[in-house]
Design a protein that fits this description.
Number of helices: 10
Strand order of the largest sheet: 1-7-6-4-5
CATH architecture of the largest domain: 3-Layer(aba) Sandwich
GO molecular function, one term: 3-oxoacyl-[acyl-carrier-protein] synthase activity
Strand content: 25-35%
Pfam family, one: ACP_syn_III_C
Number of domains: 2
Largest sheet: 5 strands, mixed
CATH topology of the largest domain: Peroxisomal Thiolase, Chain A, domain 1
Shape: globular
Keywords: Acyltransferase, Transferase
Order of helices and strands: EEHHEHEHEHEHEEEEHEHHHEE
CATH class of the largest domain: Alpha Beta
Number of strands: 13
Protein name: 3-oxoacyl-[acyl-carrier-protein] synthase-3
CATH superfamily of the largest domain: Thiolase/Chalcone synthase
Organism: Peptoniphilus asaccharolyticus DSM 20463
Radius of gyration: 18 Å
Mean pLDDT: 97
Structural class: alpha/beta
Low-confidence stretches: none
Length: 297
């Protein structure tokens, strides 16, 4: 069991938003944002979630006959029917024997899609996994506790089922208030609650991976964790006694891009990965939920 990553791509957005943008509309400062989040900038998309996802899908390299699954992770899609994944299936003229679906786990979505793909695919079969978010469309720009945190983005991968190391942990704790949004409303987050949840539960989830795999912490080469806040990453590293240098980071440039966070990070840091590396993926989000994976690259 396991997954091999055959291709990894991201969309390069042009509309870069520096922290100074918020200093003009909110009672905040560049120093305040950086000191509490580690974020210096983020990108806001002009395109829709569907447009970004289709553009990304067209960039990926794959054998159409091997694709058996398309999953798109997003909580900000403008589309209700058909699914963005179904649209991609049509635009790419994929095999009709291909399950295509959107999933909404917010920030947990991409790692959740990895886990679903690994369990669905048979040896040699492939999946397209895409995460696309336009969070700028659901932000309350009068709320400095949330609006400064988020950015837009899109990235995706082509994966193939293999038989390398693959250990997972999936948890849903149940919390409808910590991170929520109803149709027609802005996204709402109880920042302190999410922070406490992340620094408590994420290390426990990753520890479980070590216990089940028998892999030692010092054998881990890289950690690709959800880019929500640099202080959360520091706390996870400290609680695990795992060198922070093993944690890949780009939250300073992109902010929190929800489901797109991990694949964007992967696309930007893929050159650091080599065959045989022991890699951890972990993301947390609405639900409250956590998905973690320990795999051999």
């Amino acid at each position: 069991m396991g997954l091999k990553f055959l291709d990894i791509k991201k969309i390069d957005l042009e509309n870069k938003i520096e922290n100074e943008y918020f200093t003009k509309i909110l009672d905040t400062s560049d120093e305040w944002i950086k000191s509490r989040t580690g974020i210096s900038s983020r990108y806001f998309a002009k395109e829709s979630v569907s447009d970004m996802a289709v553009e990304l899908a067209n960039k990926l390299n794959f054998d159409r006959e091997k694709i058996r699954l398309v999953l798109v992770a997003s909580f900000t899609s403008e589309r209700i029917l058909p699914s963005v994944a179904g649209l991609i299936n049509e635009k790419l003229n994929l095999n009709e024997n291909c399950l295509s679906a959107d999933i909404n786990m917010a920030c947990t979505g991409f790692v959740g899609a990895m886990i679903l793909a690994e369990r669905f695919l048979r040896d040699g079969e492939c999946a397209i996994l895409i995460a696309a978010e336009k969070i700028s469309s659901v932000l309350d720009f009068s709320d400095r506790t949330t609006s400064v945190l988020f950015g837009d983005g899109c990235a995706g991968v082509v994966v193939e089922k293999n038989n390398k190391l693959w250990v997972t942990d999936e948890k849903t704790y149940g919390d409808e208030k910590a991170l929520s949004m109803r149709k027609g409303e802005f996204v709402s987050m109880q920042g302190k609650d999410v922070y406490r949840f992340a620094v408590d539960k994420v290390p426990k989830s990753i520890e479980k991976l070590f216990e089940e795999s028998g892999i030692e912490k010092e054998d881990i080469d890289h950690v690709f964790a959800h880019q929500a806040n640099i202080r959360i990453l520091d706390q996870i590293s400290s609680k695990l006694d795992l060198d922070i240098d093993k944690f890949m980071v780009n939250v300073d440039k992109h902010g929190n891009t929800s489901a797109a966070s991990v694949p964007i990070l992967l696309a930007e840091k893929k050159e650091f990965l080599k065959d045989g590396d022991k890699v951890i993926f972990s993301a947390f989000g609405a639900g409250l939920s956590i998905c973690s994976v320990l795999m051999e690259w």
